[in-house]
Design brief:
This protein is mostly helical and 262 residues long. Helix content is 55%, strand content 9%. A hairpin with a 2-residue loop joins strand 5 and strand 6. The longest helix is centred in the first third of the chain and has 44 residues. The radius of gyration is 28 Å and the shape is extended. The N and C termini lie far apart (75 Å).
């Protein structure tokens, strides 16, 4: 009798285990079918972001690879701390380059009447317009505040941001943490991996700092009609047909030359 009971319990255990394994396989199969379907649908509708997010889920986290760097003298650096110091040295030299304009070129610029309205304190409508123009999905800077939080929390954050903006406007500068950049390096897939010049630096700036810069940029665009002609120029990956777009690109390129590496 006892042997029959043990056999019955063993059979029940095996049956339950088989059923649970079959259910787990079904859940896994349903998950992969749903993930593949979402990737396929995103690809068909042109939603590249969702497509790549699905691919990342399917392939798993990428393995972090570190390569030794070379100092300016050519010596190979393997110590992690010294590698970070080398990156700071590289980008400090790269971004500290100053452009000089000759006195003759300055004197040849025609004098224009002063626009006093550019010095006036920004309005809340200008700041609200800049918030509405923030692009979603952008990586934040050191403060880790993404643009989605500022856009969604605009009713509550607008008065405080406006107060800070007016303070920065009066003092003529913003807080240092709004000007600092977190630089991410991407290998150009050509050349020596140990050479810092073969990496492209992506500067992740403070979203709040970008917001204040957008207010100033919108103000400065009122000048573009006066000194920038309507021309067509080529910049990397895009063609610009209008003076306002050229002015925006010029300010963006100039603003990307940060002096602080973190």
């Amino acid at each position: 009798m006892e042997a029959e009971l043990q056999y019955s319990n063993l059979s029940s255990l095996r049956k339950a285990r088989c059923e649970s394994q079959a259910f787990a396989r079904k859940c896994a199969n349903d998950y992969w079918l749903q993930l593949c379907s979402s990737i396929e649908q995103a690809s068909a509708t042109g939603n590249i972001r969702v497509m790549y997010e699905g691919i990342k889920k399917a392939t798993g986290p990428a393995a972090k690879k570190t390569a030794p760097l070379k100092a300016k003298s050519g010596q190979v650096i393997t110590d992690r701390r010294k590698q970070m110091e080398r990156w700071v040295e590289h980008y400090s030299e790269l971004y500290s380059t100053e452009n000089t304009v000759s006195e003759e070129a300055i004197n040849n610029i025609p004098a224009l009447p002063t626009l006093d309205e550019l010095d006036k304190e920004p309005t809340t409508s200008e700041l609200e317009k800049a918030i509405n123009g923030l692009a979603s999905g952008k990586a934040p800077g050191n403060n880790a505040i993404p643009p989605e939080i500022i856009k969604k929390g605009k009713p509550a954050l607008l008065p405080h941001l406006y107060k800070l903006l007016c303070l920065c406007w009066k003092e003529g500068e913003g807080p240092q943490d709004m000007r600092d950049a977190r630089i991410v390096t991407l290998f150009k897939k050509k050349g020596d991996r140990s050479d810092c010049n073969n990496y492209r630096g992506i500067s992740l700036l403070s979203i709040v700092g970008k917001l204040f810069a957008r207010v100033a940029l919108n103000r400065l665009q009122t000048l573009s009609d006066r000194f920038l002609p309507r021309i067509t120029v080529w910049l990397p990956f895009r063609q610009i047909h209008h003076r306002h777009d050229l002015f925006r690109e010029t300010v963006t390129v100039a603003g990307s030359n940060v002096n602080h590496c973190t």
